[in-house]
Amino acid sequence: MNSDIENIVKTHFANEAVDGIKLTNGRLIITLQKDVADTTKEAAMKEQLLSLADVSKVSVIYTAEKKPTSLKPREEGWVVRNVKKIIAVASGKGGVGKSTTAVNLALALANQGKRVALFDADIYGPSVPTMLGYEGVRALSYDGKTFEPFEYMGIQSMSIGTFIAKDVPLIWRGSKACGAIEQLMTQVNWGEIDIMVIDMPPGTGDIQITLSQKLKLDGAVIVSTPQDIALIDAVKGVNMFKKVDVPILGIIENMSYYLCPKCGTRADIFGHAGAKVAAEEMKVPFLGEIPLHIDIRENADNGTPIVFAEPESRFTAVYEDIAAKVIAELD
User: Are 211 and 121 contacting, i.e. CB atoms less than 8 angstroms apart?
Assistant: First the structure.
């Protein structure tokens, strides 16, 4: 490990235990035993670290055990302690940008003043660790029974992707997958959480039904593109949640239109407004349109979601508007 990196980290966080410092291909991940982010120290440290020739990106993860809270556990089904509301972000099919939407929605909810957790239930294709910048970092357990969530960008998160290599497929039947999700979700020390966002697997199978029934979800957000084939599956998703008595908070039309990054020209390459029409026909709220733009995709792939990386951008404004509507529906 570069001694300059270690010296800079320990200069700024001299009184805290540094759990780990990992540098891979210019990407530096620092793990600290600290339960609350010190944004001033963190910003100063990052500025120094990024001035080093071999560091192109810095992520800081806080892992200290949270103090006990007075909130009561949810009594129905699985017990997820200290979580007030749980919502699912789901899609009828894959490839519609559900995980990108879930991550940015969680960050936008936090920007609205909510204490937010993000749980990655997409067990066969977990992408939250990549999008939040802790890919390859193992979850910590101080007692051998419970895990500490990753605290990054102001939200708590957990994913099964942190326990397995990214190129290892999980060849599990539905019952085993559901058991793993229950164990992981209920054995995390979440702290006080106003809203937990669950990034669901695509489709309407065992995992979706089990989560809907065991967690007594407070609502579901359906993500679709404007394409007819995606909308058909989105309608199936809405109807599945209705059958298990989960309120539909609304539909989001992702990749609603293409914006050229150079000239700003708009093109409706997948059609347009299909999700809005579908929402009206099903009498569920339409939450908004998210454009197809390279900045949203690149930031998600780089572990710096657009809501965090560009808080003043027009794309962040779209996510925050959707977050405000979700809060209104929950209330």
Answer: yes
